[in-house]
Design brief:
Layout lengths: L1 H12 L14 H4 L24 H7 L4 H27 L3 H17 L3 H11 L10 H21 L1
Helix pairs in contact: 1-4, 1-5, 4-5, 4-7, 5-6, 6-7
């Protein structure tokens, strides 16, 4: 229901919540039966040009066809995501790959619940980065995220 969806999205976007990757996470069925979790395998994580910005059909199924509620949750995400971007930039600057992955995981979760597929895909790419090989790519991914977040802001303004 709508209240459960609000709680799930709020959990993902609150910057003060820091999850431990070692802790087992409840399955989507346990947290919200109507929410289908998107996996990286379902989206081309390295080429977002072919991925739609938002899967509105999936979003509306998830949000009970309530565009107003979707818009409210998307704006709430957009209000918090900028602090996550700053955390990512700091993690890239200090080469803290674990912090990058943890922050990307939080962004990915919220973006997935909003069906913001490009943001989800880029965040998944950051989360799955090889610690030794891909670290220089982190800044590029952060710039891509910023660009897609700006696109999502424009999209939400049209709803």
């Amino acid at each position: 229901n709508t209240h459960e969806m609000f709680n799930i999205i709020e959990k993902w976007i609150k910057p003060e919540i820091v999850e431990s990757c070692a802790e087992p996470k409840p399955s989507p069925a346990e947290t919200a039966p109507e929410t289908k979790e998107i996996t990286c395998r379902e989206l081309p994580c390295t080429n977002t040009a072919e991925v739609p910005l938002v899967d509105m059909e999936g979003a509306m199924a998830r949000f009970g066809n309530d565009r107003g509620f979707y818009r409210k949750m998307a704006r709430k995400f957009l209000n918090y995501v900028h602090s996550h971007i700053k955390e990512l930039e700091e993690a890239v600057e200090t080469e803290d790959v674990e912090a990058m992955k943890k922050t990307a995981h939080n962004i990915k979760g919220a973006a997935g619940n909003l069906s913001a597929n490009r943001i989800f895909s880029i965040a998944a790419s950051i989360e799955n980065m090889d610690q030794h090989r891909d670290n220089p790519a982190g800044l590029s991914f952060v710039e891509d995220l910023k660009s897609e977040i700006s696109s999502l802001e424009r999209f939400v303004d049209t709803l």
